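User: Just a sanity check before I run the rest of the batch. Below are the structure tokens for the first item. I only need the designed sequence back.
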């Protein structure tokens, strides 16, 4: 998965190696006709022998994830959908606007520790890690999609806040999923994706 950039001048592409044995669908964030793109990708993913309402629903899901990635200014994004099945996880990489004095893992940890929650399971787990691209803060948590609601969907996710050694910038790499039974597998995937991240 590649994303072409024009700024900053020091690097041009963000690259992530999506696991080949899984069915990842790359979101075309530069598409000028996202509805047509979503329907084309839905057709390729589901095949022609499915009810039209399945096709429409999957295309709508793709558009939702596409819109969310575009709104947050993602450099690249993809969704994980088993063959002929629905989306079970989403992955985005975005560049963060962070003052130079705050581009430290310690600052990222302090900000994460102040996040209000609520969190479920083991709470919010913060780990400092070394990635090939540079040092990072790894944040693993489960939280409600709507903190104000009495009940609702719980989303689990792992975010890596990365400080590339060669470039004066910061990146957020985030894998999110709502099928909590897939957590053990997707935790490993999140770490693999972060390890593969490159700026070129």
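Assistant: Here's the designed sequence for the first item:
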């Amino acid at each position: 998965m590649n994303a072409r950039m024009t700024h900053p001048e020091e690097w041009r592409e963000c690259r992530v190696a999506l696991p080949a044995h899984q069915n990842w669908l790359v979101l075309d964030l530069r598409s000028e006709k996202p509805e047509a793109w979503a329907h084309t990708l839905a057709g390729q993913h589901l095949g022609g022998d499915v009810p039209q309402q399945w096709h429409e629903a999957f295309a709508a899901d793709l558009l939702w994830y596409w819109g969310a990635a575009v709104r947050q200014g993602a450099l690249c994004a993809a969704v994980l959908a088993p063959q002929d099945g629905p989306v079970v996880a989403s992955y985005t990489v975005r560049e963060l606007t962070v003052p130079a004095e705050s581009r430290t893992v310690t600052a990222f940890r302090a900000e994460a520790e102040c996040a209000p929650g609520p969190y479920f399971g083991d709470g919010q787990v913060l780990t400092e890690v070394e990635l090939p691209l540079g040092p990072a803060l790894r944040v693993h948590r489960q939280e409600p999609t709507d903190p104000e609601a009495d009940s609702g969907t719980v989303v689990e996710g792992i975010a890596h806040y990365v400080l590339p050694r060669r470039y004066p910038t910061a990146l957020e790499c985030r894998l999110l999923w709502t099928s909590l039974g897939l957590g053990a597998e997707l935790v490993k995937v999140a770490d693999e994706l972060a390890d593969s991240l490159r700026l070129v």
